[in-house]
Amino acid sequence: VALVVVIGTIALAWLLPYYFSDRLGAETDDPRWVIAFLGLSLAAQMAFDPFHGVVTGCHRWDLHSGINVLTRVIEFMGMLTVLLMGMGLRALGIVYFLSVLATEIMRMFLAYRICPELSIRFSHASWAHTKKMVFFGWKTAVATIAPLILGQTTSILVVGYLGPALLAVLARPLALVRHVETFVNRFAFITTPTAGALQVKGNSTELKQFLLESTRFSVAIVLPITLLFAFFGDIILTIWMGPRYSYGWVFAILAIGYFLPVSQSSVLRILVGMNRHGRIGFYSFLVCMGSFLLGIAVVNVFGWTLINAALLIAVPLSLGNGIVIPVYACRQFGI
């Protein structure tokens, strides 16, 4: 997979002048280098990802978080230094690539240290195991890709019907609620290996209690932020971006719409750890996409506004990821 990313990166960097020379003009070189370094960074992350799985699978969250914090601080200081020295995007790309590469190499050495029996060789590979992993990955992708499709498709529709200026107004509150989602997912991430370990040991009672406690903690984290965004979102946007980015109920709708999907994200992560996420991931995806397409038809009748666009994202997510998945999990656990 990493080699495919490298090849794609080289192709994109090489083709960039042919397709965007009229827009970039004399500024063609910097974007090519930026694409190259960002693509190589992504390839490095993918190539070293097995070591990421080993560290987290051994429940060494202290090392996992410590590496991330340390390297992000170094990366930030490097980028700040580059900017203060008057360097441009190419230098920023180099700093980012080197920080990612250093992070992954450090994680590899730690993985071998905490798991001495770790051995990665071509002789260990098998086609049967590869198919099993690919199938597992596709199930996970289907279960988690709906928010991305909803957000990107709605953005394209907003540009087409309302223009790029109003897309910027929608993008700001959407970015803030996604930051909350990312923040909570960092906590929910640890539930996957924990659920797998409990399932292997046959601790069904502890697994059920683990599901309940993890969702309670998630709600405790997300609910205050949701209320803050719902009641004071306009003030936050006005202070952050100016009064032009404060647009009625848009922020409140997005915050409330993301509340259930984000606060129940640990449920899906636990199902992933138990390898029971395939069928419900597919069903939740169908619910999201079906309600989204129905919503587009309704909006086309009543007219496009930012509030309707926000509802197009919030309602399908609440139905699919926020309600369907937890109901399925409750039936699986007898809750």
Describe the protein's architecture and organization.
The chain has 335 residues and is an all-alpha fold. 85% of the residues lie in helices and 0% in strands. The protein contains 14 helices and no strands. The protein has helices at 2-24, 29-47, 49-57, 61-84, 89-114, 127-144, 146-162, 164-188, 191-201, 204-241, 250-263, 265-273, 278-302, 306-333. The chain is globular. The two termini are 40 Å apart.
Question: How are helices and strands ordered from N to C?
Answer: HHHHHHHHHHHHHH
Tell me the total number of β-strands: 0
Largest sheet: none
Q: Measure the end-to-end span.
A: 40 Å
Instruction: Determine the structural class based on helices, strands and strand pairing.
Output: mainly alpha
Ranges with pLDDT <50 over ≥5 residues? none
Mean pLDDT: 88
Percent of residues in helices = over 70%
Instruction: Please indicate the percent range of residues in DSSP E strands (runs of 2 or more).
Output: under 5%
Radius of gyration: 22 Å
Helices, by number, come to: 14
Shape: globular
Characteristic terms for this protein:
globular; 14 helices; 85% helix; mainly alpha; 335 residues; 0% strand
Please write out the topology.
Layout: H1 2-24, H2 29-47, H3 49-57, H4 61-84, H5 89-114, H6 127-144, H7 146-162, H8 164-188, H9 191-201, H10 204-241, H11 250-263, H12 265-273, H13 278-302, H14 306-333
Helix pairs in contact: 1-2, 2-5, 3-5, 4-5, 6-13, 7-8, 7-14, 8-10, 8-11, 8-12, 9-10, 9-12, 10-11, 10-12, 11-14, 12-14, 13-14
